């Protein structure tokens, strides 16, 4: 009898583990710039956003608890025009492990300067597919799907498509029902939520999407066992991004890529063979001149 109970408990635990939530997201709300006496409001905001992202099932995909996607949301509140109304800039970062190492590589690093929302501890933070409840919940859900999509793209060719479709649906609803909140439309900025998802779903950016699979699954995941071959794969990806940059200069997703990867690329190639180092520098200095001072280390013997 006791054995049967133990087996049942193990089965229940296994089923629960397979259905764990997708995100393991750290949330930080920085309220130093906002003058307001009731600081508990900001603690509650941080807790509510944490629970919204981490306690919800965003997809039907099976996830074990150890497979949850590590990510971070740094919400820097810049203004409270009136009580309960906030403006902020937000950094969204997600990472994934690389095979055979303890190293975590950044998949998404994006700064969204167009956050404006209402928040009250008296009102629940709700979300419904294909519906609009608030700008805050729409922005959080949008980035939840962006994080999941980027992660899935890195493990399977174009694997993030269903999540990106969800993010697009949120954008469409928010842009039509969002009471004038910015960040959802093309003309609001040249680097916002609209352009982030638009780039990822634009057929011209297919080399980027395919490159994320090649770079992570066939590159970084092989670095521990076949470093030279892995670097050569990544050089091929960078060459494709260079051509894409020439066609679509200053695209939001390309800028996000180099924000996330510039330091990692330097570390990856600074121990490479001289020919690979030179090739990496040539591509990177052309496609990402903003970080050229970082890449110059690749010229050193």
TrEMBL record:
Keyword check for Signal: yes
Native species: Pontibacter rugosus
Keywords: Signal
Signal peptide range: 1-20
Protein name, entry field: DUF4835 family protein
């Amino acid at each position: 009898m006791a054995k049967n109970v133990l087996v049942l408990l193990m089965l229940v635990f296994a089923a629960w583990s397979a259905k764990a939530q997708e995100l393991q997201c750290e949330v930080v709300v920085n309220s130093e710039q906002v003058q307001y006496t009731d600081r508990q409001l900001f603690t509650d905001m941080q807790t509510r956003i944490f629970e919204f992202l981490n306690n919800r099932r965003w997809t039907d995909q099976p996830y074990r608890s150890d497979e949850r996607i590590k990510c971070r949301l740094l919400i820097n509140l810049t203004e409270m025009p009136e009580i309960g109304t906030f403006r902020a800039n937000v950094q969204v970062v997600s990472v994934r492990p690389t095979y055979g190492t303890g190293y975590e590589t950044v998949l998404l690093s994006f700064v969204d300067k167009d956050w404006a929302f209402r928040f009250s501890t008296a009102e629940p933070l709700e979300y419904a597919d294909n519906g609009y409840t608030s700008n805050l919940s729409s922005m959080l859900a949008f980035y939840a799907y962006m994080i999941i999509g980027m992660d899935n793209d890195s493990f399977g060719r174009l694997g993030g498509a269903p999540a990106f479709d969800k993010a697009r649906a949120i954008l469409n609803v928010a842009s039509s029902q969002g009471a004038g909140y910015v960040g959802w439309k093309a003309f609001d900025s040249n680097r916002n939520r609209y352009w982030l998802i638009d780039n990822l779903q634009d057929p011209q950016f297919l080399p980027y999407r395919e490159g994320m699979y090649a770079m992570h699954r066939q590159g970084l995941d092989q670095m521990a066992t076949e470093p030279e071959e892995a670097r050569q794969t990544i050089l091929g990806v960078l060459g494709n991004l260079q051509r894409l940059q020439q066609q679509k200069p200053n695209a939001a997703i390309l800028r996000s890529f180099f924000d996330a990867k510039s330091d990692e690329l330097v570390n990856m190639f600074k121990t490479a063979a001289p020919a690979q180092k030179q090739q990496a520098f040539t591509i990177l200095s052309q496609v990402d001149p903003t970080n050229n001072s970082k890449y110059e280390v690749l010229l050193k013997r």
